[in-house]
Amino acid sequence: MARLIIVAALLWLGWLFYRRLKRQRQPQPPTPSSGEAMVRCAYCHVHVSRHDALEDPHVNELSRHLPGERHWFCCQDHQARFISNGPRPRRRSP
């Protein structure tokens, strides 16, 4: 009877150890650090971190919007499209 209890305890400890190892091996999704500034892409309106966003001071001069307004972009393609076409219209949810 004592052997059965010892084997059960060892199996239970092994299972706990396996779960802890499995949890540590799973990649954690990147989370933005607290307080990181987010900006909206002027073309597609998606929010990106300010660190990853692109800003073009020349767009502000060519803009059809208020002078001095800052425009941020999520990628160079959207920056070029904004310069040539202006912002993409927002879609309304039904």
Protein architecture, described:
This protein has helices at residues 2-25, 57-62, 76-85; strands at residues 38-40, 47-49, 54-55, 72-73. With 94 residues, the chain is an alpha+beta fold. The protein has a domain at 38-85. A hairpin with a 6-residue loop joins strand 1 and strand 2 (47-49). The longest helix has 24 residues, at 2-25. The chain is rod-shaped. The mean pLDDT is 78.
Number of separate helices: 3
Largest sheet: number of strands, sense, barrel closure: 2 strands, antiparallel
Principal-axis shape equals rod-shaped
Structural class based on helices, strands and sheet pairing: alpha+beta
What portion of residues is helical? Answer: 40-55%
What percent of residues are in strands?
5-15%
Let me know the average pLDDT: 78
DSSP summary, beta strand count: 4
* Distance from first to last alpha carbon: 67 Å
Strand order within the widest sheet?
A: 1-2
Low-confidence stretches: none
What is the radius of gyration?
26 Å
Q: Name the assembly state.
A: single chain
Write down the secondary-structure element order.
Answer: HEEEHEH
